[in-house]
Amino acid sequence: MQNTTSDHHTRETAATAADRVRAFANIVFAVAQAVASQVTAQMGVTDIGTRSAQSPSLFTPPDFTFAIWGLIFLGMSAYAVYQALPSNLANARLRQIGWWTAAAMALNAAWELITVEYGIVFATVLLIFAMLAALIQAFLSLHHDAVLLKRERAFIVFPISIFAAWITVASLANSASWLGNAGGFDGGPLPDEVWVAILVVIGGLVGALMIRRNRGNIFYAAVLVWAFGGIAYKGIKLDQPLIIGGAVLALMIASIGYLAFGRKAPRDKIRA
To answer: Is 135 in a helix, a strand, or coil?
Structure first.
């Protein structure tokens, strides 16, 4: 009987009741986060990007960058269906990350509803950092061995990577919005644009570290480029050289991180 490393990885044991519950939870919360975004439209707000604009922060990326939510919802919905297929219920990788992804999507649904109803408040900041923690746990567990099926790369690695990358930036943007609009932080001795430049660079450094920890993940890196590029564009529109400089530096850090760490990291073996 032929037994490949990939077969051993994906079918270590038979599916259990816990596997089915986990798979069902991911489907429910994938639908919930997508439906929540539609519910927001019934609350008089077109989308989360519009609501974010109502809690202004120089750090918040421009409206067009929020189009990535459509790709995130689509990708995570595809992931939810894929992980619930009978042949994937006992997949060791999905067992390791499944409850983290379910938690992240549940937190996202709650974050969408509360954000639209109340704006960027302390509760939404807590929710988005909890979401980020769950996504980081899943993200860093994606490559716990060196073998990836092509379909796993498409239906697991891709959606979780872009979700984690966007929430990495969004957590900083939400914090900046809350501190400026509700938290009473006036920037202290530094002007707002300096704080934004600092935050963007911090985002670039965190992103580079995440790229290093996850084998030079190109999907994660691409979303950082999208977000930081959007912030640079916003800086140009607002004629804010410090924001432009911070965003360009963050872009360089993320790009160099991918080029340097991605080449040094052990490459995944992609199997059909």
So the answer is: helix
Distance separating alpha carbons of residues 50 and 183, to the nearest angstrom: 21
CA nearest neighbour of 207 among 245, 161, 174, 243 = 161
Beta strands in the chain (DSSP E): 147-149, 269-271
- Show me where the domains of the chain are located: 5-271
This prediction has a pTM of: 0.85
The full length of the chain comes to 272
Could you report the per-residue pLDDT of 195-217, keeping only the tens digit for each? 778 888 999 998 888 888 776 78
DSSP 106-131: HHHHHHHHHHHHH-S-HHHHHHHHHH
Residue with tokens 């408040």: 121
CA-to-CA distance for 56 and 265, rounded, in angstroms? 39
DSSP string for residues in 224-266: HHHHHHHHHHHHHHTT-HHHHHHHHHHHHHHHHHHHHHHHHSP
β-pair partners for 269: 147
| In the predicted structure, residue 58 carries a pLDDT above the cut 90 | no
Q: Are 142 and 93 in contact (CB under 8 A)?
A: yes
Mean pLDDT over all residues of the chain?
A: 82
Nearest to 143 by CA among 152, 133, 135, 131: 152
Is residue 251 within 8 Å of 226, Cβ to Cβ? no
**How many CA atoms lie within 13 Å of 54's alpha carbon, on the beta-carbon side?**
15
- Model pLDDT for residues 111-161, shown as the tens digit of each residue: 988 887 777 888 999 999 999 999 999 998 887 565 777 889 999 999 999
